[in-house]
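Worked Example 4.2. Read the sequence first, then its structure tokens.
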Amino acid sequence: MRQKPVLLVIAHGSRDPRHAATVHALVRRVRSLRPGVRVETGFLDFNIPSVQGVLESLAAEGVRDVVALPLLLTRAFHAKADIPAVLRDAPPQLRIRQAEVLGPAPLLLSALERRLYEAGLTSADKSSTGVVLASAGSTDPEAIAVIADIAREWWHTGWCAVRPAFASAALPRTEDAVRELRALGCERVAVAPYVLAPGFLPDRIARGAAGADVLADVLGAAPEVARVLLERYDAARVPVLTAVGA
């Protein structure tokens, strides 16, 4: 029986130790949901093991098939350039398929709502609450457009209003979106970080949420996020293609 491809979760990495801890917690949840799949973690920068190091170790073990999954919410520079470049340098005996990024996905909206409810809101608060969908930001216009689309989609589920905001590279900032929702007349304002793990930019989002009534936690190891990872893995693993760039 042919072995299932190894799932290699590729995270950006950070000097902030909370980032790697959150990534590892998410990977543990993925393993618990799919015990028959081997799941490894590699980092692009700052943390170990590196993506290249994991790929070399897998090749040395005789692994042939790998699904490389970018732990990213939008398809921006890292998914389009950094990760493909690393995968092109993988040992030639590995057959690698790069999975799609996590977002957008309906399950991620469910995870955002989970975090808001954990922060104190209830479903009865939706129609009177404005939400800031606060992402890290990007210089990639495709990624910015996706965040705006998600905000519009989420608004249609019953919130008073939903506005996108960005911690870097694009406007508006979180604090500006909070003020806008106040001006619209929403009874309360909540900030929902559309980020996976703590770090420098999520901390900036938190500072910008000082004028809000509710600040949700990052998505982290929410079960919905783990399920999206497995959906992306399943979509990518059949069929497993030849090595990246081949």
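Now turn to a second chain, presented in exactly the same format:
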Amino acid sequence: MVLENKVAVVTGAARGIGRAIAEEMLKQGASVVINDVDEAELNKTMEELGDKDKIAVVKGDVSSIDDAKRIVGTAVEEFGTLDALVNNAGILRDRTFVKMSEEEWDDVIRVHLRGTFCCSKAAVEIMREKGSGAIVNITSTAGMKGNVGQSNYAAAKAGILGFTRTLSMELQKYGIRVNAVAPGAKTRMTLSIPEEVIRKKAREDPRYLKLLQLPGPEYVAGLVCFLVSDRAKEITGLIFGIVGNELSLWTFPHQVKVMYAPEKWDVQLLEKNMSRLLEPLK
């Protein structure tokens, strides 16, 4: 049991990936605080997961700094410490950009990006004092590759990647590790995309059919448990992908080609050389 005597907080844990992570953490010996905004589902999850001595339930909005402090603080109140935080809470408000409302944009940015900030802020105060800890931020390939109809979601998840990288640099000196996981799993969120929409997109790009064949969220849990365990104490600042039995490592954006102007890049010089810059790398 790689998490024996560890204490973790998992946000958005009433269903889907969050619940699967919490369940696996309990199997691996951890005590777990599970959070969600849906109190009925939280209580149902607690009943179904079983060991009430090792589970605490906190209803709360991760994008509220007061709620985030209460969620994270419950770990210390109930179990004496905090070793790991999984920022998993999220929502979808899919719509093409020209039809997207300000509210749909703000809601997704608020829950994903601000929620990750608020809970991390609360957790780091505890972890820095004890000199150790691990944070896993749930991101998405949408934040790296984009996805039609998800400009809000892609922006939030890309923001989480930049946040992860920077936080890993800043917190390493305090013994705190920060990584990101981009999962692919069949959950209530992915099932919210109508099948006919997926099949329509698949006519242009067959890869969309994978959305109809996604494995369950339990496939994600092992990686997250490993990353917050002491077995991964040298791993920080990385992005991992997990879809069923496929495990991948992703890079952050990096410079791939450089050109220099004699003095400065004016419009004429750019027009003359842009095709060279855009040539595929050999």
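Notes for the reader: The CA atoms of residues 171 and 234 lie 13 Å apart. DSSP finds ten helices and eight strands in the chain.
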